[in-house]
Each structure stands twice: as structure tokens, then as C-alpha cells.
Amino acid sequence: MSGPSMLSEPDILPDTALNHPDLVVSSSAGQPTIATPQPLTDRERVMSLEQWIQQEINLGHERLLTDGQRQIELFKAKAAELRNCIDAL
């Protein structure tokens, strides 16, 4: 009976790397890898693990919300541009 297998690569969803500043996609393998971690700030050092996780969840939520709003604005701008082209016909 063998022991638990060790993962050679982090278990990360590929699209996660696009929205998280600490993750980068390796161009050679096309798989996400974890970049060199940044040192914790003084504020983060005194946080409990639960507090740090909640902070990361909140930051991720803010990034997702901001990115979603940006994509909606781009969509609206492109729709207005296409509408003007159609009206010009």
C-alpha cells in the first residue's frame, strides 16, 4: 500500500491565475504556478488565519466586481459603436 501522492504542481484553476496578483501562468507549460510570495505586511502578521483568509476573499470579491464592471462598460461601448454603424446604413 503506497502513501498519499504528492502533487508536483499546485492545484489551482487556470483562470484563477488571471485575477490573482500572486499567480502567473508559465508560458512554457501553460500551467499556473505560484510566483515568489511577498512578505507579509505588519498588519497581516498580527491577523489570525481566519482574518487573513477573509481579507483575501474580500480582495478577490472586489477584483471580481471591478473586472465585471469594466467588462460591462466595454460591452456597452462596443454595442453603442455597432448601433451607430447600423444606423449609418
Task: Classify the helix fraction into a percent range.
Answer: 40-55%
Arrangement of strands in the largest sheet: 1-2
User: Number of DSSP helices?
Assistant: 3
Q: Biggest β-sheet, characterized?
A: 2 strands, antiparallel
**Mean pLDDT over all positions:** 77
Q: What distance separates the N and C termini?
A: 73 Å
Q: Give the topology string: H per helix, E per strand.
A: HEEHH
Given as residue ranges, the uncertain stretches (5+ residues, pLDDT < 50) are 9-18
Number of strands: 2
Tally of domains? 2
> What global shape is seen?
elongated
Radius of gyration computed on alpha carbons: 20 Å
Structural class: mainly alpha
Beta-strand content estimate? 5-15%
Biased composition (Polar residues): 25-39
Region (Disordered): 1-40
Q: Can you give a write-up of this model?
A:
The protein has two domains: 12-38, no CATH class; 47-89. It has helices at 16-19, 42-45, 49-88; strands at residues 23-25, 32-34. It has a two-stranded antiparallel ribbon with strand order 1-2. A hairpin with a 6-residue loop joins strand 1 (23-25) and strand 2. The chain is mainly alpha-helical and 89 residues long. The model is unreliable at 9-18 (pLDDT under 50). It is built from three helices and two strands; from the N terminus they run H-E-E-H-H.
